[in-house]
Amino acid sequence: SVQLEMKALWDEFNQLGTEMIVTKAGRRMFPTFQVKIFGMDPMADYMLLMDFVPVDDKRYRVHSAPGRYAFHSSSWLVAGKADPATPGRVHYHPDSPAKGAQWMKQIVSFDKLKLTNNLLDDNGHIILNSMHRYQPRFHVVYVDPRKDSEKYAEENFKTFVFEETRFTAVTAYQNHRITQLKIASNPFAKGFRDCDPEDWPRNHRPGALPLMSAFARSRNPVSSPAHQ
Amino acid sequence: SVQLEMKALWDEFNQLGTEMIVTKAGRRMFPTFQVKIFGMDPMADYMLLMDFVPVDDKRYRVHSAPGRYAFHSSSWLVAGKADPATPGRVHYHPDSPAKGAQWMKQIVSFDKLKLTNNLLDDNGHIILNSMHRYQPRFHVVYVDPRKDSEKYAEENFKTFVFEETRFTAVTAYQNHRITQLKIASNPFAKGFRDCDPEDWPRNHRPGALPLMSAFARSRNPVSSPAHQ
DNA sequence: TTCTTGTCACCTAGGTGTTAATAT
DNA sequence: ATATTAACACCTAGGTGACAAGAA
């Protein structure tokens, strides 16, 4: 079984409609997809990987509405049918293959995974269409030592899906609240914080920033079960 | 077979008497120990590791002599018998185990290896006695798939020694020329360069800095054979 | 109007020798 | 006198969103 780490933060983003930046050079995800794994055979080899499947066959566009955040408090509209599918790449966790014991003894982090909108990317990054919705998937492959292991491919393969990690791929943020939550929670964006340069999120006081309440509430985030 | 990378730089340091800093927290080596590997079975698994053996059973001390570099152009004197041996730790290359094909397709770099003088170190760093001379060794272990693989430990094990990588462990540099060569060649020490902030060593003109001539001369460093 | 691209200041994270203070 | 330690300024390396300019 698999537990999603930082579930509270994922939930907070998901509630607003998570957006992930895609760039030509490749951009990491934030939050980072991280899991705790249980129940592996400690001595057996496993490959861990991720891929991304379209949530629907739609292309989205935004509508800028005047409001508190001029030109930024915008809403998503369906713009038509999805663009042709991108190359369905997968990202192997760089430690693959490794023993079950190795995978289970610490959080597995996919922080090397990068998203790009460059169809000709040759860095092995995940290629996505901007303005489309995606569902990350996590796969565990048992490395079968048997010679005819191909026959057992089905049973040596397990997929885990966390719906709260769905997101829209964008080249620039469309929802200003998403931007603010990224700035508030991603250490690398600390330069854009204008509130107290306090040690958020570590000592964040519940209620101080309504938007981030869910994240603030859970000091010991409870991981969610995966749809398997 | 194995080729030492940056042999020319190693030679230059070795000619002056290489020194490596050891700290409580652990310090990387410079130059970094890097090798190119040939002749592995591409499909077989190998473990790569390093250890460090005393070159002699002596403890050294320095004698400060007045000169061009006051209190720094010093010479090594034998100070007596070696201190009790440190725990003989080994450093496994973090990618171990991996297929021969993986190891051979690029330079293998031991840049995660750190040296410490802390006998109680619990970070898995290599523990060395300061003011003692050491010989780095590089080991290749073939992961034998046979059940009784222990019996073949001898033949599944190969050790490579490059004498030009010998060094004295120190807590502070003793030879000012070593300091200068480190500053000149280690990118992380660029802040201490006072000569032209030019792109040394890339475009270094042979002869301009006599001390670094050997390194400057070889644009395509020839690797040295290992004593095996 | 909407979306994409490239550059930038500002961060995180961590590898350098220097230096002054301390230990032996 | 010699050796070690810890704090420090200054780097490398690379992850942020802002912003202005360009493209569709």
TrEMBL record, chains A, B:
Keyword Methyltransferase (UniProt): no
UniProt keyword terms in alphabetical order: Developmental protein, DNA-binding, Nucleus, Transcription, Transcription regulation
An MF annotation (GO) of this entry: RNA polymerase II cis-regulatory region sequence-specific DNA binding
Transmembrane residue ranges: none
Domain named T-box: residues: 4-194
Major location category of this protein: nucleus
Compositionally biased spans, kind Polar residues: 220-228
UniProt record, GO biological process: anatomical structure morphogenesis; cell fate specification; positive regulation of DNA-templated transcription
Top-rank taxon, per record: Eukaryota
Gene Ontology CC annotations of this record: chromatin; nucleus
Location in or out of the cell: Nucleus
Name this polypeptide is given: TBX1 factor
Organism annotation: Eolophus roseicapilla (Galah cockatoo)
Residues of the full protein shown: 18 to 245 of 397
